[in-house]
Amino acid sequence: MKLLPAVAGLGLLAATGFTQAADPNLARNLAATCANCHGTNGKAVPGAGLDALNGIDKAKTLQKLADFRSGAKPASIMHQIVKGYTDEQLDLIATYLAAQK
Amino acid sequence: MMLMKRRDFLKAGAAAGALAALYGCAGMGKASGHVVVVGGGYGGATAAKYLRMWSQGGVQVTLVERNPTFVSCPMSNLVVGGTRSMEEITVSYDGLKNTWGVRIIQDDVLAVDPAKRSLRLAKGGELSYDRLVLSPGIEFMWDEIPGLDSTAAQSAILHAWKAGPQTVALRKQLEEMKNGGVYALSIPKAPYRCPPGPYERACLVANYFKQKKPKSKVIILDANEEVVSKKGLFTKAWTDLYKDIVEYRPNSEVKDVDVASKTAILEFDKFKADVLNVVPPHRAGDVATRSGIKLINDRWVDIDWLSMESTSTPGVHVLGDAIFPAPTMPKSGHMANQHGKLAAAAILNLLSGDRPSPTPVLMNTCYSFVDAKNAIHVASVHQYDPATKVVQPVQGAGGVSAARNEIEGKVALGWARNIWADMLT
Predict the structure, then answer these.
(1) Burial level of B159, CB count in 10 A (0-12/13-18/19+)?
(2) N or C, where is chain A less crowded by C-beta within 10 Å?
(3) Residues A23-34: b if buried by 16+ CB within 10 A, e if exposed
(4) For chain B (length 425 residues), average pLDDT per consecutive 10?
């Protein structure tokens, strides 16, 4: 089984950036990958111990994600997951979730 | 029957107005048509909800599910181990019906006719569809373990690899076993449903024995050459917590059983247990294998990763454990939920005359308990690669827990509550 080197994979994603921008549902679809743990449209089940992400200021969410990535913010799992998304994808996700009530 | 169906459709139409009010109008919302979803597990239930939510009620959705309620496979090992109840892993389909306007038919599907875009129900009648979603889970390959190829044998030697009555029955066998008895669990060769699941079960049964029947043993008969998932963490748990209870035997494929003596028959060896728990090899659920859809290795459905659509059969999208997995992608409930969203987005584009998104992303998280409170995880992120036309794991992302811990035990229970709500509420 041959895996793509991460750099090549990221390069491909960057190269198709114009397609992503043209896909009106991309942010919605990407944010839906977070919903398993953080609730549909970021509305986590109250009291279940996982952060709700809806209506949070975009800059705040992006800073939190950056801190998970750098290790500045300790995590059990998010430091591993955040590395699977490009900066552009994280920006789309944070923008979409900020707009959810 | 027809009258009831019409009434349900009218209700669904009324719910559509309420949905539009709830969710505003972010998308294009021009998709319409009828999607039938077969199987209300992690994949199918998610697809049904997201088709309704994302189309703001514009697409009619019918879910055909044989069981009256959803019973979760993830967390069911806690019931086997005796620290949680069936009620705690059971969720109603009422949310899908009442909140999202999904029409639910409790029935089995006999066969699909992809040319006619219709399917036949076991209790009679046909359903036609514009797009079909199959989320049929797995079927066991009983012919691989000939002694188990009868209903009587299957009620004596349990798999408990589909949550429900078998979960309860396995718990009962363990409770009735004497202190000093032997519980043997056989694991088929990968790929199988829930890679860490058997090792979690071994831990949780050992946890029960340690507290209530300390002279008893857990023997793992693994057809694989080594622990398939979270190897270091499980091995450490067996050494640290269950040193005199758990014994792991690799390369121990169960070829047959003698039901009366509860004996597992290996290639060169036999193993007699007091409670014998055999998970047979599996393949895609029957509805997928019966519908003329292209399979890989006669077992798993070949799909297009941009849409989850069968590569052989237009209009049929297949999710979850039934598909031929992408590299390093586990057959998990979490992943099936992600498949459901990918398929829902693609189907709505297709019903609107658009192409599916060219850049799908999927991610996975699997928690396993090693005792009643401590859990461990494995996570991964998978991005579509246009060169191979497959979703590929992102290198450097994902991974496993540093060590078992109680925080992740709490998060695992929170994960369950959130994913069940994401599918069903």
Answers:
(1) middle
(2) N
(3) bebbbbbbbbbb
(4) 40 47 47 97 98 98 98 98 98 98 97 95 97 98 96 98 98 98 98 98 98 98 98 98 98 98 96 98 94 94 98 97 97 98 98 96 98 98 98 98 98 98 98
Gap between the Cα atoms of A28 and B177, Å rounded: 51
Residues of chain A contacting B383 with CB distance shorter than 8 Å: 9, 13, 84
Structural domains in chain B? 2-139+283-358+414-424 (3.50.50.60), 142-280 (3.50.50.60)
Beta bridge partners of B126: B120
**A6 in a structural domain:** no
Distances B325 to B285, B301, B332 between C-alpha atoms, Å? 15, 9, 11
Size of interface A-B (CB pairs under 8 A): 145
List alpha helices for B180-294, DSSP H.
197-212, 231-241, 286-289
B22 in contact with chain A, both atoms CB, cutoff 8 A = no
| Backbone dihedral angles phi then psi of residue B378, each to the nearest 5 degrees | -135, 140
Q: Treating both helix axes as pointing N-terminal to C-terminal, what angle do B333-351 and B406-424 enclose, rounded to 10 degrees?
A: 30
Q: Which residues of B touch A50 (CB under 8 A)?
A: 411, 414-415, 418
Residue window 372-391, chain B: list those with CB within 8 Å of chain A.
377, 379-383, 385-388
